[in-house]
Amino acid sequence: MLHDVLSQAERTLANSDQADIVVNVRHLYQKTMQVDFVAAVERLTGRRVTAFISGNHIDPDIAVELFVLDGPVL
Predict the structure, then answer these.
(1) pLDDT tens for residues 22-39?
(2) C-alpha pair distances (Å), 54 with each of 1, 15, 30, 47, 61
């Protein structure tokens, strides 16, 4: 879980009633980068990722990146 992740531009959009756009763009970015993120976690943990779940919340400014692994990290 990460706090204060929005860029200044994203904060400006969110404060101008454009929070949905910020969340949608962040979701698109996560979908685009999913293969790279999963590969990095698998390489670092030695486990297979069975699910990747990503979410963003505007107020408070919190993002969650959840990687469900196929077993304990050795």
Answers:
(1) 999 999 999 999 999 999
(2) 10, 22, 7, 19, 14
